Every structure is written in C-alpha cells, then in structure tokens.
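Justification of computing resources. Each target in the renewal requires a structure prediction run like the one illustrated here; the chain below, 623 residues long, is used simply to show the kind of job we budget for.
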Amino acid sequence: MAADYVHEGAADDLVTFELSARGEGLMTVAGAEEALAFLEGMRFADADLRWLAGQDPVTFDEPVLERLRGLRFGGSVWAPREGTIAPAGTPLLRITATRVEATLVESPMLAAINYAVRVATNATAIVRAAADRTVWDFSMRRLDGLGAGHTAARASYLAGFAGTATTAAARDLGIPATGTMAHAKVMARGRAGELDVFCDQLRARPAGATLLVDTYDPITGVQQAIAAQRLTGARLAAIRIDSGDHAALGTTARRLLDAAGLVDTAIVLSGDLDAAQIAALVADGVPAAAFGVGTRLRSGEAIGAVYKLVEQAGEDDPALRYAMKLSPGKATDPGAHQVTRRADGTHVLHLADEPIAGTPLLAEIMRDGVRTAQAPDLEADRVHAAAEREQIAADAPAQLVRSPRLLALRTRLAAEIQDADPAARRETALIAVDVQHDFLPGGALGVPGGDAVVEPLVRAAGAAGFVVKTGDAHTADHCSFTEQGGTWPVHCVAGTHGADLHPAIAALDGPLIEKATTQGADAYSGFDGTRLAELLREAGVTHVLVGGLATDYCVKATVLDALRAGFRTTVLTDAVAAVEVQPGDGRRALDEMVAAGAHLATGWGREDSNLRLTDYESAALTN
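Resulting structure tokens:
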C-alpha cells in the first residue's frame, strides 16, 4: 500500500491511526518502549530496496524507492503511561504521521504492543495473587522465540515482578537478575552425588546459594540441603521446589528447615504456576517466600489488538475525515481519541479535542519523531503500575463508555455510510418487538407511552432492507399468567384482539415471528425457540435495529440474543418504552444492553436530522 500511496500522490497526507484491543476486561499497558525504539530506528537499507525492486519492479519503481530510501519517522505518538490499568478498547497507541509512515509501521506496532500487554496483564494478576511475596520471571525457555525474552522480562518487571532469570535481559534493561542451579547439575552425578553437588554449590557461593531440591525426592532433597549447609557452614539462602504438591512440600520443607535452625532460608516455588494456583497457595498459608513463573506468564489468547485509520486531517467531508469501519463485530470509532478516567473510576472514550472532566490517560510520548519527557521510563513506570494496582481493583468495572459527542458522530456517520451504500441497507433489518394491543395503553398489560413507539418504528422500517415483527401467541392457560403461578395477568392469547399487532406495524411488509406459543414455556426474546436468527441470516442481514415493547423485558432479551447471535445491534431509543415494575428498570435495561455491545440511536430514517444523540446517552455522562 505504501507504494500505491506514492504513485497516487497521497504518501504525505497527514493521517491518524489508533491501536486498540478488542474484547473485554482490564489490561496493563506495556510495549510503548519497544514501539518507540522501532520508530526511531526505522530505515530501508540499500539491500532492502534492491530486494523490493527485484520482487516487483513495476510497483517498486524509482519514485517509490527514492521515497523509501530517505524514510524516517517524523510523526507523533500518544499512549497511556506504561503500567496503567485500563479497559479493553482503550487506544494503546495513537499515531499521527504521513500516510506512508503510518501505514508501514502497522505490523511492528501490533507486534510490540500485543505481546507486551499480554505478558504485563498476566503478570499483574500474578503479582496481585502473590500478595507480599516476591515473583521472578522464569519464562525464557517457554516463550515464542529468542527475542521474546526481553519483552517478557521488561513487561513482567514493569507489572511488579522482582526481576528475571533471563540474564541478557537483566543486563540490557538494568533490572535485577536471579537464577538457581539446574536439575542437570545434580543428574550429572546421580542420586548418590546430590549431597556433594549441594556442598559444591554452597562453597562456590559464600554469599548464599539457592539449591534445587526436587531432582529426585523433594523431601530427601531438603534434608540433603540441610546436611550440606552443616558440612560447609555456608549460607543456604533458599531452596527451590519445582514439582509435586507445592502446598504439602512447601509446608514440610519449612518445618524441616526451621527444626534445623535455618529459619532465614527461604522457600521458592516454581513449576507451571499461574495466578490462580499462586492465590490458592497464599490463601492456604503455604510458607513460600517467592515464586518463579515461567510457562504461564504468556498464558491465554493473544489480546487481539488492531491498528485502524481513524482520521484524515486533510479531508473536508466529515465522512472521509472521520474514518470508521462497520464490519459486523469489528466496527471502529471515528476520529482521534482520548480516554479520561473520571473520579468514580469510569473510563470515557471521547474525541481528542473533547473536554471531559477527569484524568486523561493518553500523553504525547513522541513528537516529530523525537521522544518527549513523557516517554516510557521503566523504573518510574513500575512505581506507577504499583499505584494502579492499588487504585484499580482486580474486579473493577472494565466498561469503556463513549462520550455524547463521540456517540453522536459515530451514529451519524454510520447512517450516512449506510444511506450511501445500498448493500448496507439490504443488510439491515428492523425487528419490531411485540407491538401488540395488550402491550399498548389500555391493554391487559399496557406499557405507559407504548403507542409512541409506532411512528419511529414505521419510519425506521422505511430505512431498513428487511422487517421482522415478533409477537406473543400464548395459550389460554399459559405458564406466565398469574392464575397459573406466573408473573403477569392474562395477555396476548393467540387468536384474540389483544394478541393482534398495532395496525401500522401489522401493515409493514415482513414476516411475523410468534413466540411463547406452548403452555409450559415462556419466551421474552424473539430468538427464543424460533427461526429468527436463521431467517435473518438467510436474508443476508448483518445489522439489526430493535424497537418495540417493552424495553426492560422483551426488547432487552431480543437485543442480548441478537448480540450473542453475532449481529451488529442498534436499539432505537425513541421506539421503545418500559414497563418499569421498579423505577429505573428501563434505564438499567439500556445500561445492560450497551454493556453487552449494543449501540443506541434515535431518529433512524428521519430525513431532516440523520441521527441525533438520545437524552439517555447525554445523561449517561452527567448523572
């Protein structure tokens, strides 16, 4: 693509890309140092250029080669401070540079951030689990290649590990190194030579040695370590147990050491430990002074970070200036962003120039290709990471809330893109949920203001490529009725006026999905026990608009099931109304839908306004 931009005259356009992670949960920020180091050293050597020209001389002609020959990164980089704990979706890098520079660095930036954040996030959980006990990085031999050792050592130290057994990383990063003898040292002399090996180790390290006691039998190994200390008089700093029942062996080893007067000899436990195992050992009071973590430091799936174009400064058309992607399940937010942490702990994603009260997380760490004073500093950032662990609980809410202005921009641009794309319109379906007479004012279970949903639903139907209507079709003795021990009065009995749709909804062209049709099974969701998902997929639908009755029951259930089924889902907030059994139920239902991934919009299909921010969304950041 970089070559294409040179040929098209777009190589020097100023653009902004952001790197963020899809998914859920809290992450520990790391990898910015490696990202900056790559940007500082980005060069194309003559040999690189010759190779490119040899691959495709048409694409890599002289203008392209000349542009690459002098390429140096001269852009700006914004990022949260390393060690910050933030929810998924937070921009981990925001890069503003020429189009050719920003395009070329995508894969290296993802490689730097993806792995470091994964390790730092795991390390944060492990440090929390260990409480006040020391944790060391033993991971080098289990990592993804030789180069991963430095990344793991740095990210884990940042997150609170005491240091690393990867000595080259300790040297290069200036962090503490550790290490113990290997099983091979004992195996070389056999079981009968274990005591002699331990004596040699202690004599060679008068300041204190750590002996690995589980090559054969761990308890015998502890006894041999004690005997070696007595024979040599040297300091036995620690023993390490790398296998077996850590809790039982650690407890027995402590008893034996204390009985021998070696109360200051520490016990180090290692061997495929993870945060959950360490937490259990700590909770059980196992007398370990330290843990060595290797294999499980890189456990779990890759964080799935993506690097996407978000803004093009030179474009006057907002639909081009603020870039966004609408792929199902992979939609992005338009514009350059900042994340602000409010006093209540909420993290707000907003446009970079939008004022939001609180502490902004992203700072400029590189300007014009040169590091700023806010660039990563490992020791200072390690202190910051410790403060973050104190401030942000492990079970703290991990939701990233969009600001009113960002929501409005996102919704408006999405509508404009879909209006300009007939295919997008064909892929959008309206689900009109349960707009039946018994749910309308005056009905057996009338929803206050329920009739107000009809007009916006009809309008939205005109902007959708496909319409589906849902409705209850209960038996006369349905299990949900109070006389059958259920919650609700008799309503929507099949074949009665109460079960009929409002005439304006019934007149919409599209199938009716009947639900809860058997006596013993209730169903709030239009997807529950029906072919709705298959019907939508057969119609090529990827995006559903949902409105109807009632917000806090059947609409909510339908929206949550639509999301589970993989559909991009938008709730039409001017086309829903709530039962409100408890005051605020409607608002809480919207909160739950948004937390699950739904978008909110109002005015869908109205020609005079595109879409506007709802009162609900505006209130979300002010209440």
